[in-house]
UniProtKB/TrEMBL annotation:
Obligatory cofactor(s): heme
SUPFAM superfamilies, A to Z: Cytochrome P450
Alphabetic keyword roster: Heme, Iron, Metal-binding, Monooxygenase, Oxidoreductase
Protein name according to UniProt: Cytochrome P450
Entry-linked Gene3D superfamilies: Cytochrome P450
The family this protein is said to belong to: Belongs to the cytochrome P450 family.
Keyword Heme attributed: yes
A GO MF term: monooxygenase activity
Length: 412
């Protein structure tokens, strides 16, 4: 049992209160040096090596953004670095991470297969993911070993008081009524969830933003100009009040996460005793109901011209903005929204601001690479929009591309 799948509202509330210790203002301030370190690694990889044109080789940014996200989240949660950006050794586990997402998506759509042991007994993992099922188990074992090692390091009270990763903040917390904290088993479950879910959100948020800015030059120009006028040096970019003044860049991120949101699987809710009424429709007791975030984000009554990337819709007057925000939920809404949404948003904003400060990016000059991730008539109904970044449902979004080239700018 962990916070994501806690059916009881009371249990969820208690567990969320514990997990939120890792996302307090103090915890986020302590995380900034690690964020900046991994952002620097990310930028170095994107801008190098340089070709004769001065532009980098074409980069498949879903892959490199995933490496960045995994490195960062592993460091923030358990103080371990996967070093995927800087070393190829652990990169073999990225397909396993994606397979774990697919498995989670299957569990939501077909829960009976997991509850009844059908998935395990029929070896559906090996059947559906024959090439990476074993790798997935190895990845899970690696994460568990990191968490176990971190917990072992934290046995001394003195050590616990001086460390600053999320697992410490969460392990330190004791329930004021019972005086108890999470067991090692519960901590392992929660940290694993943060590692998997957190990396997926950052990856899709980053790649969606890269995609739309590279396809909408007016928005790109405004975002770049804003960043370069606000931050005089790269060292001034961080989790500070200045970041919040990048209003247009934030609008670009909000819009990218609206058009191509990270959560793709409908998150079902079961109607309780007496049933429920949703939009005037009675849902009988015991029935489950859901919608996808993608459908919500393309509701024309809230988002006119919903398939157009338009950051300006986030800069409207308060009345119109209220309608836009009412149908925007990339982190879900209510008591069960994403506990790490502020941190994830800041991480992506810092990364993009740093990229735009150091240089520029464009779609790959090779047309065969530039089209990867784009919609096309040959993909069938609903996927025909060329400028829409294509998402595939594996619980969190699965994407490919965009292939981009990067070039350092001449600093005045």
């Amino acid at each position: 049992m962990f916070v994501f799948n806690a059916a009881s509202n009371e249990l969820h509330s208690k567990r969320r209160k514990i997990i939120s210790q890792g996302f307090s203002e103090q915890a986020m301030r302590a995380s900034e040096p690690k964020i900046l370190k991994h952002v620097a690694n990310y930028c170095n990889v994107l801008f190098e090596p340089v070709t004769k044109t001065g532009w980098s080789e074409a980069r498949e940014t879903t892959q490199w953004s995933a490496f960045f996200a995994i490195d960062l989240i592993a460091d923030l949660t358990v103080g371990r670095s996967t070093a995927m950006l800087t070393s190829p050794e652990n990169r073999i586990y990225n397909p396993a991470r994606k397979a774990n997402f697919a498995r989670m998506g299957l569990a939501i759509q077909w829960p009976e297969a997991f509850r009844g042991g059908l998935f395990k007994n029929l070896k559906l993992g090996e059947l559906l993911f024959p090439k990476i099922a074993k790798l997935g188990k190895q990845w899970q074992n690696l994460l568990s070993s990191w968490i176990a090692a971190r917990l072992k390091e934290l046995r001394s009270v003195e050590k616990l008081a001086t460390e600053d990763d999320m697992i410490v903040a969460i392990a330190r917390y004791k329930d004021p009524e019972t005086g108890q904290g999470l067991s090692d088993g519960d901590l392992t479950a929660e940290m694993t969830t943060l590692l998997i879910a957190g990396s997926g959100t950052i990856t899709t948020g980053m790649t969606s933003l890269l995609w739309y800015l590279s396809r909408w030059p007016d928005s790109y120009g405004k975002a770049a100009q804003e960043v370069r006028s606000i931050f005089k040096t790269p060292e001034s970019i961080g989790m500070n009040s200045t970041l919040s003044t990048c209003i247009y860049l934030k609008a670009c991120l909000q819009e990218a996460m609206r058009v191509s949101p990270a959560p793709t699987t409908p998150l079902y809710r079961e109607a309780g005793p007496g049933g429920a009424v949703v939009c005037g429709i009675h849902i009988p007791e015991g029935y489950e109901v859901a919608t996808t975030i993608y459908a919500l984000h393309h509701n024309e009554s809230h988002h006119p011209d919903s398939f157009t990337f338009d950051p300006e819709r986030w800069l409207q007057d308060k009345e119109n903005l209220r309608a836009t925000k009412a149908a925007w939920a990339p982190f879900s809404v209510g008591d069960r929204n994403c506990v790490g949404m502020t941190l994830a948003t800041n991480e992506v904003l810092i990364a993009m601001a740093t990229i735009l400060w150091y240089g520029d990016f464009r779609t790959a000059d090779d047309p065969s690479l530039a089209s990867i991730g784009a919609g096309s008539q040959r993909l069938g109904p609903g996927r025909q929009r060329v400028k829409e970044f294509q998402l595939y449902d594996t619980f969190g979004a699965s994407t490919e591309g965009p292939y981009l080239q990067f070039k350092r700018r001449k600093i005045p």
